[in-house]
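4.2 Preliminary Data

To establish feasibility before requesting continued support, the project team ran the inverse folding procedure on a target of 500 residues. The structure was first converted into the token representation described in Section 3, and no sequence information of any kind was made available to the design step. The complete token record follows.
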């Protein structure tokens, strides 16, 4: 009997396989990479080459929503992560020193994220999936297309399986595979070929939109020296200098990473993609200096960069009507946004479990199931897509105002930045963030949004929280100017030039 075929062995694909198998489905995972990776955790970090997951060499956030889903629905996976050196970040245990009420409150047990490298998460998750009954992994499988039944007499086209080439070690050549499926899960990531596969079946009319993130970023990993404790954290370990964003991401097994986010139009900042200037920059910032000083930690990787970043959302139901059934994109294949916001893995895990719930409730290839699968995107993923794109546009407009030219800004926004967008940006910067450092109620609302436990706009939809935030925002002109956590741009460029 046909089961489910999952295309892709990353976080979205492996979590889909895990969740679907626990709903009773037989699942086949087609993984393009021919190797399962090294047998040990540190080998996976240093030697696991994964062309389909270039972001694996960058900082990642594994937010509370992801951790709570594992706690509640896959406790064995969470236990395996913790057994392999992953630690929990309990946000409310070390509140800002200015907070009005530092005591615990109900719900704090959910405000817990994971400190973890992406390779560690993937390595542990893969081994849990490999041990799961009902899951078969096919390494070295390149998907060539989908099988399907065309629409006729008012019926919606249906995907019925997958065509692939898989490495056949015994014959020394690739073998053709045709796998029937009740449901095909496309978890092949940002570069999914789903549109071309559907077009080959004569399917058209799906909805897709995309927007340039306007940013590139560089990351480097470090390891704490033996016997050395990480620097104390009495606030955020990151910041925004206007011309650049930066952050420290704690990892597992005494590792951490530093990431810089740069506007794509600022060529003067490109030296940050090189090891020398990267190290000099991290050493120049008060927040990161104590982490990279050579006495606390040493670098364990080169500098990795990601460019040409776009946000994208793809939906297979338009106007309430599916354009195809029997297939669903999951994770980055459906929705992906600026990776600097750190939501990708957490949304992918949430999406995978939600898709498994729909598949477990009935015929996953029905039109009703297609609508239910699309509702997951509309209700849970699209709001984060919208807020991410809006934030990217606001950041690009602000950078153009400060560093670019008016013609470029006009092209970007069709004129001056809309007042409503400037107002919301100001409320977040001058209201929400300072209020979260002093008000325990606002802090928890902020943390819930940051960790995807509430909607992007929940803090302004709660009358009490909104009133607290607006009260702080209204005092913005009477507060002392916030200390600048870093050099001016001209000073920073001088530091980069000296290190190049």
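Position-by-position output of the design step:
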């Amino acid at each position: 009997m046909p089961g489910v075929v999952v295309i892709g062995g990353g976080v979205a694909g492996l979590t889909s396989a895990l969740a679907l198998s626990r709903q009773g489905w037989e699942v086949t995972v087609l993984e393009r990479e021919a190797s399962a990776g090294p047998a040990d955790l540190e080998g996976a970090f240093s030697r696991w080459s994964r062309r389909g997951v270039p972001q694996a060499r960058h900082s990642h956030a594994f937010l509370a929503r992801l951790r709570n889903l594992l706690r509640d629905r896959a406790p064995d996976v969470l236990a395996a992560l913790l057994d392999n050196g992953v630690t929990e970040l309990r946000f409310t245990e070390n509140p800002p020193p200015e907070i009005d009420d530092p005591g615990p409150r109900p719900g704090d047990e959910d405000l817990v994220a994971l400190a973890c490298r992406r390779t560690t998460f993937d390595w542990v998750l893969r081994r849990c999936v490999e041990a799961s009954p009902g899951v078969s992994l096919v390494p070295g499988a390149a998907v060539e297309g989908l099988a399907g039944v065309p629409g006729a007499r008012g019926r919606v086209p249906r995907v019925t399986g997958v065509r692939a080439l898989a490495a056949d070690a015994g014959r020394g050549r690739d073998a053709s595979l045709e796998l029937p499926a009740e449901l095909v899960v496309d978890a092949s990531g940002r570069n999914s070929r789903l549109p071309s596969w559907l077009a080959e079946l004569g399917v058209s009319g799906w909805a897709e939109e995309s927007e340039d993130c306007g940013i590139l970023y560089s990351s480097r990993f470090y390891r704490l020296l033996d016997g050395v404790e990480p620097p104390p954290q009495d606030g955020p370990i990151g910041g925004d200098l206007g011309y650049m964003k930066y952050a420290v991401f704690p990892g597992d097994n005494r590792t951490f990473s530093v990431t810089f986010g740069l506007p794509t139009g600022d060529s003067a900042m490109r030296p940050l993609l090189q090891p020398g200037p990267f190290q000099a920059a991290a050493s120049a910032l008060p927040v990161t200096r104590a982490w990279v000083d050579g006495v606390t930690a040493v670098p364990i990787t080169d500098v990795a960069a990601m460019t040409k970043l776009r946000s994208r959302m793809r939906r297979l139901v338009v106007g309430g009507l599916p354009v195809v059934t029997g297939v669903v994109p999951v994770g980055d294949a459906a929705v992906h946004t600026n990776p600097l916001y750190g939501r990708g893995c957490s949304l992918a895990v949430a999406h995978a479990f939600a898709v498994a719930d729909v598949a477990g409730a009935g015929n996953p290839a029905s039109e009703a199931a297609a609508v239910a699968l699309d509702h997951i995107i509309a209700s849970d993923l699209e709001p984060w897509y919208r807020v991410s794109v809006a934030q990217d546009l606001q950041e690009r407009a602000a950078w153009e105002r400060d560093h670019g030219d008016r013609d470029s800004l006009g092209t970007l926004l069709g004129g001056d930045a809309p007042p409503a967008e400037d107002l919301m940006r100001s409320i977040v910067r001058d209201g929400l963030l300072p209020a979260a450092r002093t008000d325990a109620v606002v802090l928890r609302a902020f943390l819930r949004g940051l960790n995807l436990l509430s909607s992007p706009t929940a803090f302004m939809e709660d009358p009490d929280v909104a009133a607290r935030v607006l009260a702080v925002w209204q005092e913005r002109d009477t507060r002392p100017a916030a200390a600048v956590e870093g050099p001016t741009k001209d000073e920073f460029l001088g530091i980069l030039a000296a290190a190049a």
